[in-house]
Amino acid sequence: MAEHFRALIVDDDAEMRQSLAVLLERSDWVVDAVGSAQVALSRIVATAPDVVLSDVRMPGMSGLELLDEMSRRPAPPLVLISAHGDIPMAVDAIQNGAYSFLEKPFEPRRLLTVLKHAAEQHRLSDMTKRMREQLVSLSGLDRVLLGSDLRVAELKAEAVDLALSDAPVLITGETGTGKELVARALHRLGPRRDKEFVALNCATLAPDRVEEQMFGTAETLLGSFRKADGGTLFLDEVAACPIPVQIKLLRAMETGVIQPVGTDAEIQTDVRIVAATNEDLAPLVDAGLFRADFLFRLNAFELRLPRLIDRGDDIVMLYEHFVSQFCETYEISPIEITSEDAAALLAHGWPGNVRELRHVAERRVLAARRGGGSVAEALRTDDLIDDVPATLREAVARFEKTLISQAISNHGGRMDAVAEALGIGRRTLNDKIVKLGLEKSKLLE
To answer: N or C: lower Cβ tally within 10 Å for the chain?
Structure first.
């Protein structure tokens, strides 16, 4: 048997309050009735009504003021009643979030119908919210995107919606914000969860074997696209994807058809593409290093992960969460955060985002295991390695920049000789010079 609906009645007129309570109780409602809006606000959390029924004109706080207060927090729908109501007041109430507005004297059946619909909508909304929270928990999103920041809450809700779609998603954000973890959560939340999630880092692909690694070969190699058939293919650092492969990927995304290297055979696949980048792709499009049509195909939807520095008080909360995890892992007593620790956390710039914070928390716990340590000391360890690239791609780019710069200087700017010395084609050399931001004239000064 379904649980009875619950109503909170708010009216300063004792007789009206009693009359409304009797009407609802005879219709199997569970009723709580109070004489003022101030009391009602304190009872909403305790009684968890499905709907609030309130008079408009009351001493102290009016029904409209009660509506305004309820809009500032999670609350059930509010139905307003008044003997002094008029059309402008009703319009204003609805625009400000009231579920409905009834003018006294009202017809009892209409009142009961309005209240029932409001209660049903509230329960449906509440059930949907609980299901979302359960999905988020099961997918690991609440661990990936832990925090109370409004942007994080909106991001989790958007991720749940996108997980149910087959449309491509582009995840953007700085290094360390958790792009691959979010991509995996999207896969686990969606209908493809029972199929493969294949992660492919475009920055680490061998230049002469990119197509083989993505599309496979006629005989020996299956390729990431076919491995992910029926599931999700995650293209990490997609900005590094070569233009020729972008063209073939675009065709594969549009038609589902791929062509393994060394064969004319075409194979039909069913793959959802989720891509990620820590770069702004628009300038790469302008520079001719990234195809505009490929970008438009990739970012049918975009999830932009916030920087840790923009998440305010979440920094301290996340730190405490990680410290608690590492205390359990390393089997030591909980560590209390001091005011100095909090100040150090909030003053830091967090270029490595959540990944860096996790490392700081682990170093703090390891130091405590040895009987000392502080957040400031854990942060100083990062200061010593600030010049170390955060990702393999950044390290490769720095190495390439140094190598190409030296070759240009050694060969006096003769680009054919530079390309030959580096073992790459002239066109590839030109692309790298543009992408790495090298200025030939300055290197030859």
So the answer is: N
